[in-house]
Amino acid sequence: MVVDLRTYGLEHAREVPEGARVGRVRTQHRIDWELVTADGDVRAPLANRKVERPGVGDWVVLSEAGLVAAVLPRSSALVRRAAGLKEEPQLLAANVDACFVLAPLSAPPNPGRIERTIALARGGGSRPVVVLTKADLCADVAAAIAAVSAVAGDAPVHAVSART
Fold this sequence. Notes:
The chain has helices at 111-123, 141-152, and strands at residues 21-28, 33-37, 40-44, 59-62, 68-71, 77-81, 89-94, 98-104, 127-133, 157-159. The protein starts with 20 loop residues before the first strand and ends in a 5-residue tail after the last strand. Helix 1 crosses helix 2 (141-152). The strands form 3 sheets. The protein has a 5-stranded antiparallel β-sheet with strand order 3-2-1-4-5, with no helix packed on it. Helix 2 (141-152) links the parallel strand 9 (127-133) and strand 10 (157-159). 15% of the residues lie in helices and 33% in strands. By secondary structure, it is α+β, with helices and mostly antiparallel strands. The radius of gyration is 19 Å and the shape is elongated.
């Protein structure tokens, strides 16, 4: 099975070494990563402890033995402060072009939470888009859009309903 990695955004990956076997991280596990490669799906651990730990969305170079040998430079990185007492940031996803911020309209939207999530997306180099779901359950959709737009800046705000 041959996979066209352009459908996974390979043309946007930066600094891909000539002739390198690359893969995109789909899932992160404790000791290895699920990757999509030109040869199909593979699971690969790190080649050694000096290799940076990749995150979901990262492009990686595989060694001849099928190990993650390097992480390619990221175009964006969604990062949050780690929970608890840890000081190091936690990578949520890498190489994200657009970040969809979802909020249900089954209750009044939380503009503060939406604003923080938009800031996280922008800070990581992604383009935020706000999607207000369950619009069919909201009595005044226009007012909800206006309240969210006030904190969204230039991020587009869309209201959607699965029912209508």
